[in-house]
Amino acid sequence: MTTRSVPAQKRHRPPVPVPPAIEAEVRAFAAELTAAYGRRFRRNARLKHQVAILFVQSLPPQPGRAGRPGLGDVTEAARLLAVLRQSHPKWPAKRIWREIYARCIAGWNAMGTSERRAEAFLLHSRVRWRLYARKRRARQKR
Hints:
By secondary structure, the protein is mainly α.
């Protein structure tokens, strides 16, 4: 005999009161949109939701939700990877990464072989993780 657990109830969060000045502006903006594009909203049921999503994305992020800042060398390496792949489509991946390592890792020329290998592995895996994370987030949004 199996026992079924009772699902935990969702936490109820009280709504945050909207300041009257902001509420007035949002209602005025909604009235302007309705006056200008009311027919389009009536014809396309999804348009209202798409506009709401666009509006939310246009506002600043929530405090603490902006994420931690990225590592500068990883950002630069990811940018360089895209640029080099586009500008040199016939270059093999090894050659592109050699170029990236030389430009993004501080003191690359002064390092020994084992140090270079370790730093290269670290940078390559961080860039790969960031690119995969971007794909993961895009899949989660769907």
